[in-house]
Design brief:
Structural class: alpha/beta
Radius of gyration: 21 Å
CATH topology of the largest domain: Rossmann fold
Largest sheet: 7 strands, mixed
Bound molecules: NADPH dihydro-nicotinamide-adenine-dinucleotide phosphate
Strand order of the largest sheet: 9-8-7-6-10-11-12
Number of strands: 12
Helix content: 40-55%
Number of domains: 3
Distance between the termini: 33 Å
CATH class of the largest domain: Alpha Beta
Number of helices: 18
CATH architecture of the largest domain: 3-Layer(aba) Sandwich
Order of helices and strands: HHHHHEEEHEHEHHEHEEHHEEHEHEHHHH
Mean pLDDT: 97
């Protein structure tokens, strides 16, 4: 059970009533409120101005029909969402997720997290998130394009480089951003590059955006290791997922001298004691859109259908797949096998009770809203390049990302110290992100 300050209980009750059944959103709100007890004591002006109540209520929620025609000529209907959560620091910014599990509660939890994550980057971006319950798995390229075009035909009216700037997330990569951007351009007759991020390198994208979330995650862990006078050199790392975040987290781990032992997809996980062959994973996932099981057929290693990747002993675990993928049993297994660091590449992959098990077991823990902020930070760098009609070299963009992740780590660590919670990066991230947004909301009057 997570405890919150009694003064915040009515706020949480209102969230439960107003957003009935949206359990992921409730979880995300509760995790932030749990860290605000010292803040409400130190900064009573937030309570006087009802800032916390306001932050929990999205500025705008859009739900729309997405009709499209499949390859058999049948009309299919999906539901589209965009939750424009908070624009105190800048235009709404946050990805689009295409996955059958998507409903309003998932988009709201992601949008809520995004507010604080974006604040931590120190870039001028507000928080939002969107997506659809469309399942891209097994769909042809033509079907994906028609879906994206229909989705944008409604969403475009809510977007703009100064209004709301989406990007990718689960199920939305460079191909989908291309189709979405193409449709936006046709409808508006504007080459408004800054309206979407994650674009291709030849049409307004930024170097390092593809790699940014995974690389940024590993840069963050590098800071945690450095604080313990350690490094990735020789460490054994387990990475869940094999999508965008997972692949580039694994790539940076390898560059820094670590070994990646295991990766997964939603069907199962592969263990390769010799170290995962990342070129093969990239070919399977980025080119052939195949399953992780094919790794074993083509290369060897041990494939486990279903099962828990957290049973693989490691020094560092990086959950990079989806929300609530690391539960109590996984956390207990990691503690038992001697894992020392867990850092969230996905959004809210660790359940609250699993987080408690990890921390009580002595594992150092980095929350996603800080550790995976490199993706959105580099999206903001992409917007900066679009606004100045410039494009930076890979090394420079990576250096900017590295500096941002170092700053986020330092901000979380010093904020935790300041509030008497040394080493608590969860509290540090929640408090630092929250106070930055709350201060802007106070300054802007009644918004
Ligand atoms: P991708 O779609 O590229 O990859 C998702 C990966 O997770 C796939 O390997 C997928 O397997 C696996 N996965 C999805 N659902 C489940 C499930 N229920 N159980 C087990 N595995 C699952 O997405 P991203 O890599 O972009 O995103 C991963 C996470 O990182 C998400 O939580 C996202 O919100 C977060 N994130 C992403 C950012 C980005 O820049 N892309 C930025 C910050 C956070 P399968 O193919 O079988 O479905």
């Amino acid at each position: 059970m997570i405890n919150i300050d009694p003064s915040l209980e009515p706020v949480y009750d209102t969230v439960l009533k107003r957003n009935a059944g949206e359990v992921e959103f409730h979880q995300a709100v509760l995790e932030v409120l749990a860290n605000l007890t010292p803040v409400v004591k130190k900064r009573p002006e937030y309570t006087r101005a009802s800032v916390i109540e306001r932050i929990c209520e999205p500025e705008r929620q859009i739900i729309f029909r997405v009709p499209w025609v499949d390859d058999e000529g049948r009309i299919q209907i999906n539901r589209g969402f965009r939750v424009e959560f908070n624009s105190a620091l800048g235009p709404y910014k946050g990805g689009l997720r295409f996955h059958p599990s998507v409903y309003l509660g998932i988009i709201k939890f992601l949008g809520f997290e995004q507010i604080f994550k974006n604040a931590l980057t120190t870039m001028p971006i507000g928080g939002g998130k969107g997506g659809s319950d469309f399942d891209p798995k097994g769909r042809s390229d033509g079907e994906i394009m028609r879906f994206c075009q229909s989705f944008m035909t409604e969403l475009y009216r809510h977007l703009g480089e100064y209004t709301d700037v989406p990007a990718g997330d689960i199920g939305v990569g460079g191909r989908e951003i291309g189709y979405l951007f193409g449709q936006y351009k046709r409808i508006t007759n504007r080459y408004e590059a800054g309206v979407l991020t994650g674009k291709g390198l030849t049409w307004g994208g930024s170097q390092v955006r593809t790699e940014a979330t995974g690389y940024g995650l590993v840069f963050f862990v590098q800071e945690m290791l450095a604080a313990d006078k350690s490094s990735f050199d020789g460490l054994r790392v387990v990475v869940s997922g094999s999508g965008n975040v997972a692949i580039y987290a694994a790539e940076k781990v390898l560059q820094l001298g670590g070994t990646v032992l295991a990766m997964s997809d939603s069907n199962g996980y592969i263990v390769d004691e010799a170290g995962i062959d990342l070129d093969l994973i990239k070919d399977l996932k980025e080119v052939r859109r195949a399953r992780i099981a094919d790794y074993a057929t083509e290369k060897g290693g041990n494939y486990v259908e279903g099962g828990s990747i957290w049973d693989v002993p490691c020094d560092v675990a990086l959950p990079c797949a989806t929300q609530n993928e690391l539960g109590d049993a996984g956390a207990a297994a990691l503690v038992k096998s001697g894992c020392q660091y867990v850092a969230e590449g996905a959004n809210m992959p660790t359940t609250p009770t699993a987080t408690a098990i990890l921390r009580e077991g002595g594992i150092k823990f980095a929350p996603g809203k800080a550790a995976n902020a490199g993706g959105v930070a580099t999206s903001a760098l992409e917007m900066q390049q679009n606004a100045s009609r410039d494009s930076w070299a890979f090394d420079y963009a990576e250096q900017r990302l590295h500096e941002i992740m170092t700053t986020i780590y330092a901000n979380c660590a010093t904020t935790a110290d300041e509030y008497g919670l040394p080493g608590d990066l969860v509290a540090g991230a929640n408090i630092a992100g929250f106070t930055q947004v709350a201060d802007a909301m106070l300054a802007l009057g009644l918004i």
